[in-house]
Amino acid sequence: MSWLVTGGAGYIGAHVVRAFREAGIDAVVLDDLSTGFEAFIPSGVPFVRATLLDRDAVRKTFADHDIEGVVHIAGYKYAGVSVQRPLHCYEQNVSAMVILLQEMRDAGVDKFVFSSSAATYGTPDVDLVTEATATSPQSPYGETKLIGEWLLKDAGVAHDLRHTSLRYFNVVGSGTPELFDASPHNLFPLVFQALYEGRTPRINGDDYATPDGTCVRDYIHVADLAEAHVAAARRLGAGETIEPVYNLGCGDGSSVRQIMDTISSVTGIDFTPDVHPRRPGDPARIVANGDLAARDLDWQMRYSLEDMVATAWEARQKAGDRYPS
Asked: Which InterPro entries does its entry note (predicted)?
């Protein structure tokens, strides 16, 4: 039997697929390649090129493959842009998930690992976010992720769906040089692209109430994240108790200036970032407690910040001109 990985041709999804294969678990990828790359999918992994909004394609995928469970990573992930394109975000993240859950129900598939987000918390008023911290999303993107969690809760009651939601914080690094983060909105690829083009990276705001005045965030390595998906799938498959939500965070944060300094040190490129005004809505600090995930999913930080930068930079260099600019 196989696990269906939606969005399995993307940066995070491709790492999850590889982690499943290394764990001896077969995977099937469904991806429309709107942001992913077919080359990211390992040889021998069945690939369905389709959008989740195509109900017939989703139904056929379940009919053609012996699917045990679903890891749902596909979606529209740009929080800032979702404010300008809320209807598109809701279509991609909510309507598509409804179709997926309906077709899972009809196919008798009853295990689900959901790619949720720290965006469900909005701007928390606590130093350390736990799963009990109030959710208050401040973008359509964050709202759709929270609605996805609600859908799972209700489907679990109505259709005996076993599920868990993994709330990601800032995912960086690379588990293999062949897989890179090409997001036009994430900090690491933005800085790398600037350096690659000979431009000076920028910091948005240096007057926050933090030790160095720049925003503090929780950064986790994508390979650690992928392992957590494997652990969640195994726990669901074994019928073991599992929490509805887990934070995947490190319990300690790094500031944007620390990230810049580490990138300069690791790459050997000396630069002083330009400082621009704050972006509206950016909280000073978001850092998560990952104790629940450590207890149940063997969650741990296996990579240092230097490792995160070094692996990401190696992947960016290997990508060369294939990298979208």
From this structure: Epimerase_deHydtase, NAD(P)-bd_dom_sf, UDP_G4E
